[in-house]
């Protein structure tokens, strides 16, 4: 029997088991290919909402901390559970197994499915997350807009119990993106919005990308093809600092 390929999924916000379980629902058993096993785990400390450059730094650092031992621990790949792709490039430098972020994976998929995509998110405080990655990836010429419903997110309980209000707001803003900005693909701006994906896909005339699922399938594909990131693009450090990183600031 083939060995199960374990995937480490790093949640970038510290939370309890119930919160992690809510985020893990974006990858139901029926969605995961046979032979793969995603394992969700939250960082033990760090950012609260990702709503500031302060939190962006903490997310980069704590996701990186949480991922540096993944290869030694026997994981086949690492999935970062945030569209901010926090810690992505640093982990690719440290690891040889593939590391995938929902932002890059969804943006690139959106460009395959259309000409201009809109990132639809919960509140404008998350715009700097996308501005950073879109600039790093050089993708602004394919972006129709960044749009939000100006609603404070709940990164633990997600959208549960708020569907009637939130889903309608998202549909209205996505429609504006289509009609006013020329978007022909919608990328949800957070993996915490996964509960709205099926509703929006059924209500809108263009593709809607659920970033956590898109990124996960990209990772399954890379592992299945035996591919990983280029070490010329993401070279390993000549002098490693793993023990200092694990220990943190003393």
Q: Could you write a compact summary of the structure shown?
A:
This protein is of the alpha/beta class. It is built from nine helices and eight strands.
Kindly describe this structure.
The chain is of the alpha/beta class and 250 residues long. It has two domains: 132 residues, Rossmann fold (3-Layer(aba) Sandwich), CATH 3.40.50.12500; 109 residues, Rossmann fold (3-Layer(aba) Sandwich). Helices cover 40% and strands 15% of the residues. The strands form two sheets. The chain has a four-stranded parallel beta sheet, with helices on both faces. Strands 6-5-7-8 form a four-stranded parallel beta sheet. Strand 3, helix 3 and strand 4 form a beta-alpha-beta unit. The longest helix has 19 residues. It is globular. It starts with a strand and ends with a helix.
Q: What structural class do the secondary elements suggest? A: alpha/beta
Number of strands: 8
Q: How far is it from the N-terminal to the C-terminal residue, by CA?
A: 46 Å
Largest sheet: 4 strands, parallel
CATH top level of the largest domain? Answer: Alpha Beta
> What form results from the Cα inertia axes?
globular
What's the assembly state of these chains? single chain
Q: How many distinct folded domains?
A: 2
Runs in which pLDDT lies below 50 for 5 or more consecutive residues are none
Query: Compute the gyration radius: what is it?
Result: 18 Å
Architecture of the largest domain in CATH?
A: 3-Layer(aba) Sandwich
Order of helices and strands: EHEHEHEHEHEHEHEHH
Number of helices: 9
* CATH fold-type name of the largest domain: Rossmann fold
Strand order of the largest sheet: 2-1-3-4
Strand content: 5-15%
- Helicity range of the residues? 40-55%
Please tell me the overall pLDDT: 95
